[in-house]
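This part of the workshop introduces the protein records we will be handling. As an example, a complete record with its sequence and its structure tokens follows.
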Amino acid sequence: MDKNILFDSFEINGTELKNRVGVAPMTRISATEEGSITDIMVNYYRSFAKGGFGLVITEGTYIDDKNSQTYHYQPGIALDGQAKEWKKVVDAVHSEGGKIFMQLQHTGPLSQGNRYKDETIAPSSVQPKGEQLKFYFGEGEFKLPRTITREEMNEVKNSFVAAAKRAKSVGFDGIELHGANGYLLDAFLTEYTNLRTDEYGGSTENRVRFLVEIANEVSLAVAGSNFTIGMRISQSQVNDYFYKWSGKEEDAKIIFGALGKSGLDYIHVTEYEAWQPAFEGNEASLVSLAKKYSQLPIIANGQLENVERAVDILTNGGADIVTLGKGALANHDWVKKVQKGEFLSDFKPNEVLYPLANIKDFEIEE
């Protein structure tokens, strides 16, 4: 096993990463009630860059003062004042030699707390499966969403563009559009949550259309050298963990093929175990299918804190970068530990996610 590939530099659209290991986006509900950054968030993000991670992707950040907020105490970039506060995080990560992308999120049908609106919106009025997550202040079933109008779809596009511009204006190195896990964009992609009969529903080509249009509009608005635009894609959802695309590899071909031509600079694929076959009867992982059909740089996420697995998916699995969630939470200095051959701590969910998934006290090793 050649660990050196983990520490090779990698460039995406002019953004030079010092290595191929990043921090995955993880909701931490540690902002103010008004969606502004707090000091503990600045130190939290700084700690990952100080620990050697070449890339940090922020938690999902809401994009407007309408229906996009997912959780109470979630940070936003819907307002100029919120964006200004994020500059503290950007400067902290940059000061430690890391690069940072902001993940932009519209919750769609899965909101558990929104200070602006009581209702939720989705491609179609379909009751979401499952129940809200208690460690994000959730309780009971999700609300029944209202069907989004065409006018509101245009407003959502404009909100993604405006949020991307704000992120760029305060120094972020890029943005990631959240197209995964059952939130609004993924709800368009998912067959049973999208029952539309217009050009955004029905076939896979139609269901991916809204994602492609947003990627196109954002790239046209903020694209340029040294600013990177990506999208996160999954099959599983926070409320439907075992969902799979029914069209299997053909769906992957259509989805990743369309996104590969949409102006994106990378795709961030997340699966429970990123190296596993994406579909029954096919040995290919979703990561490798994303690479095959998009021809873009691919970030892989899903149980890759094991060093051998991370090396293998970079070497043989189609990934260009790996991101860590639980591994990063357990080891803010994962990269430095691996470089030095030091022991990696195990993730302890009871200490990190309960009773709430907010940022707990931690030490930054000097």
